[in-house]
């Protein structure tokens, strides 16, 4: 049926196109050598045959990357110095455009003032940036004196700092664009911590301190789980109730356990057999266990008001 309908449509097309000078030729009438002759007439001098061997056929995408990108756009350097009774330390963090942090820290084994320490931190960070061939950089620090001296807005009067300033001005010639900005201390916490750590540690001269890698754990490495078999039917406030009512401790309680229990019991009062906890504004919170809490909440939702609805709030 489908073949008959197709033949009918082709017949109608031939009638409609009969007024045009069109010649129909079957596919077999085209000589196979015509295609070969056409390609041969346009052959390339450096022609190489196609290779149909694809050893990496599962490879989806290949891109070329540079290990040290020349484009240093949006790179940022934070620096800070710290001084204490143990010694002086400096820290710097280089932040890439992707947000990767590269920390550097060093302990200064020579006498220096606070401002010298800040300059040392700045110079260490700039030199580390130059080694990575970064051309555009924003330098930030929480020392207003150093930042505004490097920006040329404040005059450098301390003879100890003139040489430092001249060295920084010489180093920044390696950059296409470099800017200096003041950063509040609370926004410079990482470098401040690195500098303080370096200043407090007594390091042997032979030791090689590697860069610090910081990770963030979203959960504890170990959780203590109470097995069902280890639980009893006593409410969570049983020990507090026993102490408030009879001034009694558990038989195996240590001195530290007893002190902790006494501190907790200060906020609790008892009325008959019911234990209450004093809340804010002396509001009494009735202590209930999980079973009582569920039962009371169900009664409240059903509109059944019992002794628990006498102006007290539940404490679980």
General description of the model:
The protein is of the alpha/beta class. It folds into three domains: 2-26 and 32-40, no CATH class; 75-200, 2-Layer Sandwich (Nucleotidyltransferase, domain 5); 234-315, no CATH class. The chain has helices at 2-16, 32-40, 114-131, 144-150, 159-171, 189-200, 238-246, 255-265, 290-302, and strands spanning 75-83, 88-95, 101-108, 136-141, 177-182, 268-271, 274-278, 284-287, 313-315. The strands form two sheets. Strands 3-2-1-4-5 form a five-stranded mixed sheet, sandwiched between helices. A four-stranded mixed sheet has the order 6-7-8-9, covered by helices on one side. The mean pLDDT is 76.
- Helix and strand content put the structural class at alpha/beta
| Strand composition percent | 15-25%
CATH architecture of the largest domain: 2-Layer Sandwich
How many individual helices?
Answer: 9
Helix fraction by DSSP (H/I, runs of at least 4): 25-40%
Entry summary:
The chain is α/β, with parallel strands linked by helices and 316 residues long. Helix content is 34%, strand content 17%.
Features:
Nucleotidyltransferase, domain 5; 3 domains; 4-stranded mixed β-sheet; 34% helix; alpha/beta; 17% strand; single chain; 5-stranded mixed β-sheet; 316 residues
């Amino acid at each position: 049926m489908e073949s008959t309908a197709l033949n009918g449509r082709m017949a109608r097309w031939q009638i409609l196109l009969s007024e045009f000078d069109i010649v129909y030729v079957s596919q077999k009438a085209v000589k196979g050598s015509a295609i070969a002759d056409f390609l041969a007439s346009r052959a390339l001098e450096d022609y190489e045959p196609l290779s149909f061997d694809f050893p990496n056929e599962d490879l989806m995408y290949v891109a070329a990357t540079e290990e040290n990108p020349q484009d240093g756009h949006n790179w940022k350097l934070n620096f800070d110095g710290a001084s204490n009774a143990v010694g002086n330390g400096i820290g710097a963090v280089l932040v890439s455009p992707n947000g990767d942090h590269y920390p550097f820290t060093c302990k200064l084994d020579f006498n220096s003032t606070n401002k010298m320490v800040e300059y040392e931190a700045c110079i260490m960070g700039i030199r580390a940036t130059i080694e990575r061939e970064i051309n555009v950089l924003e330098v930030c620090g929480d020392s207003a004196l150093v930042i505004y001296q490097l920006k040329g807005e404040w005059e450098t009067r301390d003879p100890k700092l003139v040489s430092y300033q001249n060295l920084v001005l010489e180093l920044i010639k390696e950059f296409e664009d470099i800017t200096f900005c003041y950063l509040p201390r609370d926004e410079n916490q990482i470098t401040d911590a690195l500098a303080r750590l370096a200043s407090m540690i007594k390091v042997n001269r032979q030791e090689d301190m590697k860069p610090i890698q910081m990770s963030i754990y979203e959960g504890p490495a170990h959780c203590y789980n109470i097995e069902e078999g280890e639980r009893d039917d006593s409410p969570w406030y049983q020990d507090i109730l026993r102490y408030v009512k009879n001034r009694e401790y558990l038989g195996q309680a240590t001195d530290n356990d007893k002190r902790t229990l006494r501190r907790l019991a200060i906020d609790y009062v008892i009325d008959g057999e019911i234990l209450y906890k004093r809340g804010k504004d002396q509001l009494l919170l009735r202590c209930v266990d999980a079973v009582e809490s569920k039962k009371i909440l169900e009664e409240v939702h059903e509109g059944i008001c019992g002794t628990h609805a006498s102006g007290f709030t539940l404490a679980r």
